[in-house]
Specification:
With 443 residues, the chain is of the alpha/beta class. It has helices at 14-25, 49-55, 88-96, 125-130, 136-151, 170-176, 181-191, 205-221, 235-246, 364-367, 369-374, 413-427, and strands at residues 4-10, 30-33, 45-46, 76-77, 83-84, 104-106, 110-114, 117-120, 226-229, 250-252, 259-263, 266-272, 275-284, 293-306, 319-323, 334-340, 351-358, 380-391, 400-402. Strands 1, 2, 10, 11, 12, 13 and 19 form a seven-stranded mixed sheet that branches. It has a seven-stranded mixed sheet with strand order 8-7-15-16-17-14-18. Strands 5-9-6 form a three-stranded antiparallel sheet. α1 (14-25) packs across α12 (413-427). It is found in: Cytoplasm.
Length: 443
């Protein structure tokens, strides 16, 4: 361990493993350390099911765990998230060849909550015209909006209509197409995946790009724009760890981190016992540098074991449901993700639903009730309230680059944005996909 590295990465959460892979591919000499014996950090997958009951303080011997089928058939993600089929993470997986280690299954449906019911999200003209989410005239207006978005090309002003994407706000774009507030609500939160309504006052280019991404992702697989890896998300960090190793990265699990060593305010190494590994840069999750992060809130997540699909989803074996904040008088959306035995994460006939949101009150469990009420009968639930941390600075002065905690969203877009931003801050450049020349079959 007493060597010098370009970068040391602490923690094997998904963000840290992706960064380790990206840095290694970019030619950096990387050492990756985790205090845990397993990959995934707070985003790990728990198997067998007995371990999940034990983790949450249940006595699995008295819980009749046998009724849930074979314990080893379960792989329960603590922070499950779907991948947008045409999104940043899938592009990264394909470009880096990590897909060699993974197999994906498309999510069967994307739904939105309105007026106490859930509806399939219409994402193309055909679905918009068939949707019961809108009235007849609103459907036609919405179809016009979707056609505009799909035909929009930033480099070709002829496709802009009377919209200036750099000046027209999101609210003005909706007004231009005469869309009502409910339509704007599900478009912004269930298609564009905004977490609040601040975007309404921002230039609409980002909104257009997000709806376009949703539509393009939908076209790839048809049922929904989302993918999920077989055997759960625990496979993702390991895939990127293998990538890093192929490019010369060194991994050490179950290794204590006793001190981060600084000289003149700059990081110079990491001490474990009597050994010090020297480095020029450090990348880590918030838990390793609590003095360098600030708590910005909390997220509540409730893992629910079900023996049936969610009602009103056409018996979907997997789906996402978003409850926009305004529908339940909140400031934050509520997210529901459902996967099942078809993803090899549960025993035959079983489903795993996760309900999550950003905490706003002193009674977090009451805040997710609208989501829990959608699920139907719940056999068992496990509740986690996690602190949300953000780094205090951009890390350029100390050369310590810290990731943000995982937010409440049920998709990976914000995760990827954070990783790409950290890489840019640390290296001063965008990740160059063309550097990934090695075919992983050469391993």
């Amino acid at each position: 361990m007493n060597e010098e590295y370009d970068a040391i990465v602490l923690g094997t959460g998904l963000k840290e493993c992706i960064l380790s892979g990206m840095l290694s591919v970019s030619g950096k000499k990387v050492l990756h350390i985790d205090r845990n014996k397993y990959y995934g950090g707070e985003s790990a997958s728990i198997t067998p099911l007995d371990d999940l009951f034990t983790k949450f303080g249940f006595d699995s011997t008295t819980m009749q765990v046998e009724e849930y089928g074979r314990s080893r058939d379960w792989n329960v993600d603590l922070i499950p998230k779907f991948l947008m089929a045409n999104g940043s993470l899938v592009k990264l997986l394909i470009h880096t060849g990590v897909t060699r280690y993974l197999e994906f299954k498309s999510c069967e449906g994307s739904y939105v909550y309105k007026g106490g019911k859930i509806y399939k999200v219409p994402a193309d003209e055909k679905e918009a015209l068939a949707s019961s989410l809108m009235g007849l005239f609103e459907k036609r207006r919405y179809r016009s909006f979707l056609v505009f978005v799909q035909n929009f090309i930033l480099e070709d002003p002829k496709t802009w209509s009377s919209i200036d994407p750099n000046k027209t706000t999101g609210a003005e774009l909706y007004q231009y197409f005469k869309l009502d507030k409910d339509t704007a609500d599900f478009t912004g939160h269930a298609l564009a995946l905004y977490r609040d309504d601040d975007y309404l006052q921002e230039p609409c280019l980002d909104l257009i790009n997000r709806v376009k991404l949703y539509s393009e992702s939908l076209v790839r697989y048809g049922k929904s724009p989302y993918l999920y890896p077989l055997y759960g998300l625990g496979e993702l960090p390991q895939g990127f760890a293998r990538l890093s190793a192929i490019y010369g990265g060194t991994y050490m699990l179950d290794k204590t981190v006793d001190e981060i060593v600084y000289e003149d305010g700059h990081v110079v190494g990491v001490r474990s016992g009597n050994e010090v590994a020297r480095c020029k840069q450090l990348y880590c999750d918030p838990s390793y540098v609590l003095d360098r992060v600030v708590k910005v809130g909390q997220v509540i997540r409730c893992i629910c074991l079900l023996n049936h699909p969610i009602p009103n989803t056409n018996n979907a074996l997997s789906c996402q449901v978003i409850i926009p904040q305004k529908q339940v008088g909140r400031k934050s959306d509520i997210y529901i993700s459902v996967v099942s035995y078809t993803h090899q994460v549960a025993a035959k006939g079983w489903f795993i639903a996760l309900v999550s949101t950003t905490v706003e009150t002193s009674n977090p469990e009451a805040e997710i009730l609208p989501g829990l009420n959608i699920l139907g009968p719940i056999k068992q639930k496990f509740v986690i309230v996690s602190d949300l941390y953000k780094p205090k600075d951009d890390g350029k002065e100390s050369q310590v680059f810290v990731s943000q905690s995982f937010d409440a969203t049920s998709h990976f877009e914000t995760t990827c944005n954070d990783v790409i931003d950290i890489f840019r801050r640390g290296t001063g450049e965008d990740f160059d996909f063309s550097k990934v020349k090695l075919d992983l079959t050469e391993e």
